[in-house]
Amino acid sequence: MFPPESLRRCREALEPGARVLIKVRAKTTDGDVRFYGDEAEPLDRAIELIPMSLRVHLSAASADADALRQRLKLAKAGGGDVVLVAGFNGGREVELKLPGRYVLDAAARGALKTAPGVTFLEDA
Q: What's the predicted TM-score (pTM) here?
């Protein structure tokens, strides 16, 4: 349930079929639990505001810097860091934190996964 004042603030986000993040309060009365909505926003917008970091593990032999650059252009400026991790012979690794911050939503992650030389992605 949304109290009238909360519903007025959140009405745009509360459309049928929409994916939303809802902040609620729970109240118990005689063993019954009721949830009251305080805030609601589109899930995509909520995800964009979460400052995440992503480690992109690369195969040094097959990584394509231009392909990575093109995919990161799609990840508009946001709150997450991207760190490239490349493994070399002898078990050595090199890490490079990219300048800027990126929105690391599902679309950006999917694009990065398909870049030549990317072996896997890791949340940091």
A: 0.61
